[in-house]
Amino acid sequence: KDSKLDQIIKTIEENDIKFLKLELRDIHGLPKSMAVPLKKADDVEDIVNDGLLFDGSSIAGLASINDSDLLAKPDINTFSTIPWRPESKGTSRFICDIYTTDGKPYDGDPRGVLKKSLKLAEKKGYEFNMGPEPEFFIIKKDENGNYMPADEADYFDVEPLDQGTDIRREIVFGLEELGFDVEVSHHEVAEGQHEVDFKYADALKTADAVITFKEAVKAVVHNLGFKATFMPKPFIGINGSGMHCNQSLFKDGKNIFYDPDTENQISQEALYFIGGLLKHAPALSSILSPTVNSYKRLVPGYEAPCYIAYGFKNRSTLLRIPASRGLGTRIECRSADPSCNPYLAFAVLLEAGLDGMNNKIDPGEPTEENLFAYTEEEIVEKGISSLPTSLWEAYHALEEDDVVKNALGEKVFNQFYNIKRAEWDAYRIQVFDFERDEYLNV
Ligand code: ADP
Ligand code: MG
Ligand code: MG
Ligand code: MG
Ligand code: MG
Predict the structure, then answer these.
(1) In the structure, what pLDDT confidence band is assigned to residue 2 with cuts at 50, 70 and 90?
(2) Whose CA is nearest to atom 26 of ligand 1?
(3) Is the CB of 206 under 6 A from ligand 1?
(4) Quick one: pLDDT at residue 208?
(5) How far apart are the first and last CA of the chain?
(6) How crowded is residue 353: how many other Cβ atoms within 10 Å of its Cβ?
(7) pLDDT tens for residues 147-198?
(8) Which of 37, 174, 314, 388 has the maximum number of C-beta atoms within 10 A of its C-beta?
(9) DSSP output for 168-216
C-alpha cells in the first residue's frame, strides 16, 4: 500500500498537481466531488489516511438531514489525473468510499452496495466481469434553440457524413490517458449517435469506469463546442441510447460460462444465471432502465428489447449470448441504458444471476425468431412476458422482488423507491403537446 502511495506522491510532485478531487456518487450514479488544494505533494497522505468529512444531506438519495455527517475515504486504486483540466497546476482525483463518522461502511453508498454483492461472489471464488457498451448522442442547438443531433450520419458511416470522427478521436485520447483500454469506437445507428467500447474488467472497476467515461465524454464534447447526452431516448422516431451489459463469471482465471462439451459451448451455470436474470427481469428493470424516458427506448423496432427472453444471435431478446467463446463467453443484457447507476445495476444483475445458480432456475428454450415480427397476441401465445413498459410498473415490480431488494439493501431500496415514485408522480401530471394534438377536439 505504501509504495502505491509513494508513487501517487511522486506523480503529484512531477506533474505539478495542485488540486485533489474527492469523488462520490449519488443514487443516480452521478459524480459529485470536492476539490482539496494541495499545498505540498505529501498532503495527499493525510487525505488518504483520514478521509474528509462532508455533509451528505444535499446529495440525492445519500443521507437524511438528521443523519448527514459522512466520511469520504479515497480508494487508493482509483487515483488518476484528469486530462481535461489544465495541464499546469493540474487536478487529480480519487473515487471515495463513504463511511459513517464512527468508521463503518455507510449503507447508503451505491459503491458500497456493489462491493457487498461482489463479496457474495468472491465467497464462491467467482470474479464478476462486466463489459459495458454505453451509447450517447452529440447534439447542438438549432436556430430556435432546440437540441438536435449534431450530424445526419448512420451506423459505421465515415467523415464527412460522420461529424464525430474528430470528437471521438479526442475522447479516445482522453480515455487512454485515464487508463482505459478502448476496444473500438464508431458512429451508431441514429443521427448524432456514437459508441465507444472499452475492455471488460471486474465489475467494481467497470462501474467506476462508466462514471468516469460519461464525465470524460461530456467534458471533451463540451470543450469542442457541442453537448453530449446519455439520455436514453432523446428524440422520437430514431434509436435511443443503450448500455448493453456483457457479463461473465471467472473462477481461477477460467470463464465458467464456457463449456466446450455442450452443444452451444455454454455451461449449465450460464443457463442458470440466465434463468435468474429472466426471473428477476421486471424488478431489474427499475434499476437498469431507471428513468421515465428509459421506457420510450424500450419499444418495438429499434433494436431495444421489449420481451423477457434469451437467444443466441438474437438482438430482439432481453438477453443475448454473443458468438464468442472461451474467455469471451458472456451474457449480454440489452435493456440497460446509460441513465442507470452502474454500481446498483451491476449489483442487482449479479445477485439475480447468482439466485438463478443457487436455485437452479431453468431459463427454458432460447428464442431464435425475431420477436419484433410478432403481434402482442402471438407473443402471449408463445408464453413470453413483456418487460415493464413504464417506470411505474418497474418500481412496483421492484417492491415485490426480495432478491433484488436485498441486493440494494434497505436504505438504498427505500431511497431509490421514494425518489422514483416522486419522479413518476411529477411526470404523470404533465400535459404534453401530444395530448392537445390528440384531444383538443373531443
Ligand atoms: P456488440 O457485438 O454487442 O456490439 P461489442 O464488441 O461492442 O459488442 O462490446 C462487447 C463488450 O463485451 C466489450 O466491452 C468487451 O470487452 C466485453 N467482453 C468481452 N468478453 C467479456 C467477458 N468475458 N465478460 C464480460 N465482458 C466481456
Ligand atoms: Mg458548507
Ligand atoms: Mg457494441
Ligand atoms: Mg451499440
Ligand atoms: Mg451489444
Answers:
(1) low
(2) 131
(3) no
(4) 98
(5) 71
(6) 26
(7) 999 988 888 888 888 788 889 999 999 999 999 999 999 999 999 999 999 9
(8) 388
(9) HHHHHHHHHHTT--EEEEEE-SSTTEEEEEE--EEHHHHHHHHHHHHHH
Question: Which listed ligand is nearest to 136 at the C-alpha?
Answer: 4
Distance 162 CA to ligand 3 centre (A): 17
Q: Which residues are catalytic?
A: 55, 133, 135, 188, 195, 244, 315, 332, 334
Query: What is the best residue among 196, 314, 330, 333 to mutate for testing ligand 1's pocket, by most ligand atoms within 8 Å of CB?
Result: 330
Q: Does this complex have an ipTM over 0.90?
A: yes
Q: Match 427506448 to its residue by C-alpha cell.
A: 297
- What distance in Å separates the CA atoms of residue 364 and residue 379, rounded to the nearest whole number? 15
Q: What is the pLDDT of residue 301?
A: 84
Give pLDDT, residue 189.
92
Please tell me the predicted confidence (pLDDT) of residue 68. 82
